[in-house]
Amino acid sequence: MPSPVSEGARRAAVLGSPIAHSLSPVLHRAAYAELGLDHWSYDRFEVDEAGLSGFFAGLDGSWAGLSLTMPLKRAVIPLLDAVSATAASVEAVNTVVFTDDGRRLGDNTDIPGMIAALEERGVTRVESAAVLGAGATASSALAALARICTGPVTAYVRSASRAEEMRGWGERLEIDVRTVDWSRAAEAFETPLVVATTPVGATDALAEAVPETAGTLFDVLYEPWPTALAAAWAERGGAVVGGLDLLVHQAVLQVEQMTGCPTAPLDAMRKAGEAALTHR
Question: Is residue 73 annotated as a catalytic residue, yes or no?
Answer without folding.
Answer: yes
